[in-house]
Amino acid sequence: MKYIYQSVLISLIGVSSLFAQPEVYPWSNISGIRMDGELMELNSSLCVVGADWSDVQKSAREKAWYQYQRRGATQSVSLTMDQFFFNQSVEDLGAGRANVRINFRNEADTAIIGTFFVLGLPSSRYSIDDLNLMDPAGISSTREIPVSPGEILHGSARGMRISGPTRNLEVVIN
User: Where are the chain's structural domains?
Assistant: First the structure.
């Protein structure tokens, strides 16, 4: 299955939908949000990109040490990939909202391009042509949204909207 990959710098992320219930794997990846019994695929991962794109590490079941905990409506994961440490909490806010909080720290002096929260969306449901940045700053309106893994869109935005024929996804950065 083909996926559209869009990266968002790690910070406070909110994902809005109708009657959401996030599904989180113990190694931090969010598989989707269940709405009215149907899983809306997201396929998220935490990612560290090395200085020259030659070393890209993504969170996955057998690629990291992780500890999972669930307390009420919040699922929390502590994750270690080499010398990189992440804490992620995914809170089901009800009424169509989920809140993802991610903290990152590094114990060693390392040259990296950045740490990212990556969403892999099924191309059968979403199109890169239907991705819009919300309140972009420092980004030219004529600039293309990056589509290959080696490109980064420099600037900031309040979030992004991705539309599909039957589904819409909104990611808001607080």
Answer: 3-173
What is the distance, to the nearest Å, from the Cα of residue 9 to the centroid of all Cα atoms in its chain? 8
Strand partners, 137: 156
Lookup result for tokens 């695929």: 41
pTM above 0.85, yes or no: no
Residue 123 tokens, joined: 């191309």
Q: Pick from 7, 109, 5: which is nearest to 49 by CA?
A: 7
The dihedrals phi and psi of 114, each to the nearest 5 degrees, come to 170, 175
pLDDT in tens, the chain (174 residues): 333 333 333 322 333 333 458 889 998 898 888 877 778 888 899 999 888 777 888 998 888 899 999 999 999 999 998 889 999 999 988 755 688 999 999 988 888 888 888 888 887 877 767 778 888 887 765 556 666 766 777 777 888 888 777 777 888 877
Structure tokens at 34: 């269940």
From the CB of residue 85, how many other CB atoms can be counted at a distance below 10 Å? 15
- Structure-block tokens of residue 138: 């420092």
